Amino acid sequence: MQASEDDILVTEGLGKSFGEFKAVSDVSLRVRRGSIHALIGPNGAGKTTCFNMLTKFIRPTQGRILYNGRDITGAAPADVARLGLVRSFQISAVFPHLTALENVRVALQRKRGDNFDFWRSKSCLTRFDDRARELLAEVGLAGFERALASEISYGRKRALEIATTLALEPEMMLLDEPMAGMGHEDIDRIVALIRRVSVNRTVLMVEHNLQVVEHLSDRITVLTRGRVLAEGDYATVSQNPEVKAAYLGVGHD
After folding, report:
1. What tens digit of pLDDT does each residue of 215-237 get?
2. Where are the beta strands (DSSP E) in the chain?
3. Which are the contacts of 96, defined by CB distance < 8 A and separation ≥ 6?
4. Residues sharing a CB contact under 8 Å with residue 221, sequence separation 6 or more, in sequence order
5. Residue range 100-112: average pLDDT?
6. What does the pLDDT average to over 67-73?
7. Euclidean distance between CA atoms 223 and 22, whole angstroms
8. Staple 145 to which of 101, 222, 231, 253, CB 3.0 to 4.6 Å?
C-alpha cells in the first residue's frame, strides 16, 4: 500500500508478536487527511497494541508506519509528537493537583521547548496564560481556569486532556476511548468537542460506543484477533455478517 497526498497515516503489513503470541498481524491502514477514522473491535482485537505502535510506545515486529509520507517506524515517541502526531490516553493523563490553566500551560511550555524550571519567575510562566485560556474556552472550560483538575467532573477532565493535546498543535490526534466511563451528557459534550476540534485536523480514535462511531466517524476499521476484518463507512461495516458475528455477537444466518 503506497501513501498518496490525501493520506496522512499509512501502515503496511503492521504486526506485533509477544513471544509466540501474535497480538497484531498484517494490519494495513490508510487514514485520509482531515477525516475522523475509528478503530473498533471486540476486547483483545489488538486496537490498543496498534495505537501503541503508531505512537511508538512499542516497536512493531514487522511492517512500516508512514506519516505524511515519512517512514516513522523506528522513530522515538517524542520525535513523532514533534512531527504533529499526538495521542491521548484511555485514562485521563492530566496533573490532578494543578489547575486547569496550569495543566494547559505545562503543555504549552513543552511545545515551545521550555524546561519545567519551577524556580523561574511567575511572569515567565504566565506568558502562556492567554493562549491557555483560549484553549480552555475552545474545549468548553471557560470559567474553570482556577479549578483543580482533581475537582472537576470526569467528562471535563477529558475535555481538559484534549485542551492539553491541542496545546501541542497536533496535525493528527489519536484518541484512546475518549468516551470511556462517561454518562450520556458527557458523551454528547465530548462528541461535539471532537467534531469541533477535528476541523483542519485528522482524528484516529479507538472507541467502543457504536452510536458515537456511527455519528462521528467518516471511516471505520474493524479489527478482530489482531487482523483487519472489515473497513468502510458505518453503513457498510454494520451490515457485514462477519462484523456482526465478531463484534456484536450475532451469528450468521
Report:
1. 899 999 999 999 999 999 999 99
2. 7-18, 21-27, 30-32, 36-40, 62-67, 70-71, 85-87, 172-176, 202-206, 219-224, 227-232
3. 148, 149, 150
4. 29, 37, 38, 39, 40, 228, 230, 231
5. 85
6. 95
7. 13
8. 101
Given a contact cutoff of 8 angstroms between Cβ atoms, the answer to whether 106 and 116 are in contact is yes
| Burial degree of 114 (CB within 10 A; 0-12, 13-18, 19+) | middle
| Residue labelled with grid coordinates 491521548 | 88
Mean pLDDT value across residues 168-184: 88
Confidence check: pLDDT of 142 > 90: yes
User: Which regions of the chain carry the CATH code 3.40.50.300?
Assistant: 1-84+172-253
CB 160 within 8 A of CB 100: yes
Q: Is the pTM of this model over 0.85?
A: yes
Fold of domain 1-84+172-253: Rossmann fold (3.40.50)
Residue 211 predicted with pLDDT over 80: yes
Could you give the CA distance from residue 135 to residue 120 in angstroms, rounded to a whole number?
A: 23
Q: What number of other Cβ atoms are within 10 A of residue 235's Cβ?
A: 9
- Dist CA 41 CA 248 (whole Å): 9
